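hiii so um. not sure if this is the right channel but i have a protein structure encoded as tokens and i wanna go backwards to a sequence. like what aa goes where. can anyone help
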């Protein structure tokens, strides 16, 4: 029994369209799982270090931050030696994660990596070299950057929903720091004054491109350090459980399968 060419074409179109529709959901779920595993691995590796070792990692980072005070924005242009030094700070050989950012309002928990290479920004968020390392302290201003609107991972999508008074947390080598949003500004990429280091302040800025799909400007969400909230709990890796996205994917795949079967049966009865 032969199947008409038109039926085959229709099936191919249905399958292709279904795969295209499913790609963002499946890809985002995959990257979320990657982030969860990266966070879990980081926490385990940190816990394997003694308190003395953790304190030394933090101390080395704090000393590095002190060298940035009083420098102009040429600190953002690292030499090869400076870049090597930077990449070895807060660096655990078994993981690429340097810290974790948690944004409760938009339900985000993302690993922070060294640098801003595109390979990093496709799966996580990056720390901008030449800004303070995320260990807190007076006279520090860390800048964490991430993409918005990627079809494969949501990352900093929705940080524009944050407002003054909202909080986010940074956890570095078990040290948890809470920041309260005090400013949201939109700037051009070459405008750097908003990421200056104030010797009296402890800032972290979350940065992403805007407007969505055009990306001519940068949205900066700045937080100033506050005491940790009483309700704050230690970050633990999310349990591997059935994600609603998986359920949705299975349902959609099932519907596509039923459509294909129905189409095939109809084509047979028309013979």
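sure thing!! here u go:
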């Amino acid at each position: 029994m032969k199947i008409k060419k038109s039926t085959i074409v229709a099936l191919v179109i249905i399958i292709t369209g279904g795969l295209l529709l499913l790609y963002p959901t499946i890809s985002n779920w995959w990257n979320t799982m990657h982030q969860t595993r990266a966070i879990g691995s980081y926490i385990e590796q940190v816990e394997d270090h003694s308190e003395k070792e953790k304190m030394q990692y933090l101390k080395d980072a704090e000393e590095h931050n002190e060298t940035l005070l009083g420098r102009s924005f040429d600190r953002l242009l690292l030499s090869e030696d400076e870049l090597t030094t930077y990449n070895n700070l807060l660096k655990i050989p078994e993981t690429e994660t340097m810290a974790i950012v948690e944004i409760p309002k938009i339900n985000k928990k993302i690993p922070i990596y060294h640098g801003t290479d595109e390979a990093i920004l496709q799966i996580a968020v990056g720390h901008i070299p030449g800004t303070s390392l995320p260990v807190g302290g007076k006279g520090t201003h860390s800048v964490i950057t991430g993409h918005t609107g990627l079809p494969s991972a949501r990352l900093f999508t929705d940080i524009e929903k944050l407002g003054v008074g909202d909080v986010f947390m940074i956890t570095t080598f078990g040290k948890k720091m809470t920041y309260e949003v005090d400013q949201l500004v939109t700037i051009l990429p070459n405008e750097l004054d908003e990421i200056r280091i104030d010797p009296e302040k402890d800032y972290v800025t979350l940065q992403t491109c805007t407007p969505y799909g055009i990306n001519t400007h940068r949205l900066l969400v700045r937080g100033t350090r506050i005491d940790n909230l009483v309700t704050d709990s230690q970050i633990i890796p999310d349990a591997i459980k059935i994600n609603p996205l998986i359920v949705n994917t299975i349902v959609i795949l099932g519907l596509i399968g039923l459509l294909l079967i129905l189409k095939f049966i109809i084509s047979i009865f028309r013979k």
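oh and Confidence is low (pLDDT under 50) at residues 235-242.
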